[in-house]
């Protein structure tokens, strides 16, 4: 009986380790997808900022304000 219980306990530890590995993998995947999306958003933001600054320096503008 002790051997059966010991074997069952080892199997449970193995299953728990696999579950934790799956959770870690899913969290890592979520972080990777989020970082990729955030990186694209940051890149777009800096591109727009650069265009705005360039237009301000050259005197061209796409705004609708009167400038006064």
Automatic annotation (TrEMBL):
InterPro entries: Flp_Fap. Pfam families: Flp_Fap. The lineage of its organism: Bacteria, Pseudomonadati, Pseudomonadota, Betaproteobacteria, Burkholderiales. It comes from the Bacteria. This is Pilus assembly protein Flp/PilA.
